[in-house]
Amino acid sequence: MKKILYNYVFYPLAVFTGALTLLLSGCEKDEIPSGEVTPVIPVVSSMDPANVLVTMADCGGEVTDDGGGEITARGVVWGTTPLPTVDLTTKTNEGSGTGKFVSKVTGLLPGTTYYFRAYATNSAGTGYGGVTSKNFVTRPFPPGITGLVADASGNFYQTVVIGTRTWMVENLKTTKFRDGTNITNVSDDSQWGLLTTAAYCNYRNEVKNGDIYGRLYNWHSVNDAKGLCPAGWHVPTDVEWTALMDYAGGRTVAGGKLKQSGSTHWYGANVFGTNEFGFTAMPGDFRPSNGIYVYHLFNSCYFWTSTPVSPTSTTAYYNWLPYSDKIVTRASTDKKTGYSVRCIKDI
Length: 347
Prior knowledge:
four-stranded antiparallel beta sheet, Immunoglobulin-like, 6 helices, three-stranded antiparallel beta sheet, alpha+beta
């Protein structure tokens, strides 16, 4: 009986003990694999800011150590107080990985001190560039410039008061209507010539031209009920354009006073451009109603009015400023033509 009891009681106990040992050793191996490194917060440095303008600056950094974990986000964060963190919405995300990166920081206020830090995030947390913030001061408004306004695409425009009215100082660049609806970008020549609805293009279909000189819009965009200009602004009427010409001395001399001075953007010496009122007319040129570009950038600027020749007309009024003279010519053309747009503030 003792032998049977011994075999019955202690043999299963030995099996159970061995199995438990194997189970525990297996769990221990799964929990702490050989050679595994626990990630730590990544190491990142902030670069000095560059190209600091009125409303934007270039900021960046370098992720020099990923901390043993995958970098899931990196960029810069900024604010008006020292040591900004990624809890702020004012930050960029330049993707993953180590190495250098540069972010375009936009939407800044003129003449304001900003603090920024580069950051990098992995599973252990977020590391920042240095124990202190780098800072920069945006440029103030140029003389005569009075404010800023943003369009639906997030572009900011300087504004200026001329006489009693407030005008944008830059050609419109928006690719969205005021309500956020996209405006159709049409690059095909034949398609442009058939349009009876709103559309825009970049001169010769090069985005860099649109970024510098503004987009070119057909008149259907100007007249669209969704609104081409920002809230509180509109495309000037023929009467409002004429009032500006009168304030600037009349159409025979107003062009010189309204054009940007110098030859950075205008063709030749631009001897007539004085920019006396800060309007800064830029030569965005135009796209003919058939869609085929035939002229050259730098030569002229053409501005739509919101006034059609008649309620049923297929043409509308515009203003033309050539590089070779100081005049402003008022004329009319097909609504399918692509011209620049300036916005004026509502009264």
